[in-house]
Amino acid sequence: MDTTIVREAQRVAVLAAREAGALLKKLFEKLDSSAFQHKDDSGDLVTEADHQAEAIILGKIKQAFPGHQVISEESGDNRLASDWLWLVDPLDGTNNFAVGMPLFAVSITLMYQREAVMAVIYEPLTDRLYEAAASGGFRCNGRIIRMGEPRPFKRATVGWIQGHKVQQEQRAVRLRQHIDANTKRMMRLWAPTLQWSMLAKGDLDAIILYNSEGEDLYSGMLMVREAGGVITDYDGRPFKGMSKEPYLIACHPQHLPFFRGLVHNGLVGK
């Protein structure tokens, strides 16, 4: 892997995320219900802001790396054959944005041979810029953050992320209810990248993800790993590469046995 490409990609991603974020911030207060539409029967939304922010990001990537494959939330796959793959979610939290809830972010990830090697998440309303690179650490506004010693808890605060298509799956409902009943708080922000950023910063104790794959997934995962967290499947096997149907636990390494037990008991109905 060419590390000079990763460094240049990070520079481009930061510029693109900041410019797209500035646009989103400008549009946030001006959005009305006529400016968004439903994507499909799941109730997920898309706004003109998604498209405008995406155009900014894709333009900068194409200019700097015309031979790279890009998959973006609204435009789809450019289908170029390359070891390098960009994953772009120009507005993670569109539903929040559309109803006036100030919880949304820009997410840009670079993959090399299906492994995340660079990620940028930008939260425009707070001006928080999160960056990570493989073996390069996790930063928030330039400050390196590591999980360090695990924060003790009597009842955990857990981020729950679930795919739209499996919202009513009985196994998912059972697990979700179990987590909600056996933790201090189960958080669902409708903006997964913000939950991953919170875990990487130490503001959450864990994330439990139930079959939710998309352009916004791998940026936050890289940040959690670079902050010192672990990401496994429900059986404790380290998660590598990409998956169309991921079922994951992310947390501090020392807390993994606890959260594996929590998930196991939720799935079997204990």
CATH homology group of the largest domain = Fructose-1,6-Bisphosphatase, subunit A, domain 1
Annotated CATH topology of the largest domain = Fructose-1,6-Bisphosphatase, Chain A, domain 1
Task: Name the quaternary structure.
Answer: single chain
Number of strands: 15
Number of helices: 7
Main sheet? 8 strands, mixed
What Rg, in angstroms, do the CA atoms define?
18 Å
CATH class label of the largest domain: Alpha Beta
Mean pLDDT: 92
Strand line-up in the sheet with most strands: 4-3-5-6-7-8-9-10
What's the CATH architecture of the largest domain?
2-Layer Sandwich
Tell me the helix content: 25-40%
Count of discrete structural domains: 2
The ordered string of helix (H) and strand (E) elements is HEEHEEEHEEEEEEHEHEHEEH
Percent strand equals 25-35%
Find the structural class using helix and strand composition.
Answer: alpha+beta
Uncertain runs with pLDDT below 50, 5 residues or more? none
What is the molecular shape? globular
Report how far the terminal alpha carbons are from each other.
46 Å
Explain this structure.
- This protein has 270 residues and is of the alpha+beta class.
- The protein has two domains: 3-145, Fructose-1,6-Bisphosphatase, Chain A, domain 1; 157-268, 3-Layer(aba) Sandwich (D-Maltodextrin-Binding Protein, domain 2).
- 35% of the residues lie in helices and 27% in strands.
- It has seven helices and 15 strands.
- Strand 9 and strand 10 (143-144) form a beta hairpin.
- The radius of gyration is 18 Å and the shape is globular.
- The chain starts with a helix and ends with a helix.
